[in-house]
Amino acid sequence: MTTFLLVLDLAGTFVFAISGAMAGVRFRLDLFGVMVVSLVAATAGGIFRDVLIGAVPPNAINDWRYIVVSVAAGLVAFRWHTAIERLRQPVLIFDGAGLALFAVTGTARALNYDVEPVGAILLGVLSGVGGGALRDILVAKPPTVLRSELYAVTAMAAAVVVVSGDLLELPPRPVALIGAGVCFALRLAAIKRGWELPSPR
To answer: pTM of the prediction?
Structure first.
């Protein structure tokens, strides 16, 4: 399971790094600025999670693969941003994929450190939304997680699936994939259909 979680975590790092780099490109940052936003988007949520569960130094700092994957994704987005931009709402799509993968791996990692189910769900949500929130702050945008569209709720759905599977002693790999799929599908549906949480009139 450790290797499986590592693969999912690195995949989440890659897609979140793409979303960060694309946000930097849209705001016309230079190469250094794009790489900083890319790295922050890709690693901040995992760093927050690892510090809170006592897994220090955090994987994103201690394991060179996270830095290499983040830098590679940032360079890919910087070089081929025009091709990526042809996708419909590319930042939101990559952000949704990163959200799903990090929510699942964050929850599973918290459970591996014997965090109680409710705490594991909260840490899964934090893992998913942390990088995207800092990315938005760096480019002077209101963080997506604080706006009315469904965002943290979709991460919570993935975390609940993972925790439920753990409580029921179901095979962890299929449960993780189902949780990520639920989160990603809900996020894309919310973007497409404009689903929102209530906000003040």
So the answer is: 0.86
- For the chain, give every domain's residue range: 2-193
- Distance in angstroms between the alpha carbons of the first and the last residue of the chain: 47
pLDDT tens digit string along 66-111?
999 999 999 999 999 888 888 767 777 888 888 999 999 999 999 9
pLDDT digits (tens, 9 = 90+) for 21-49: 999 999 999 999 999 999 999 999 999 99
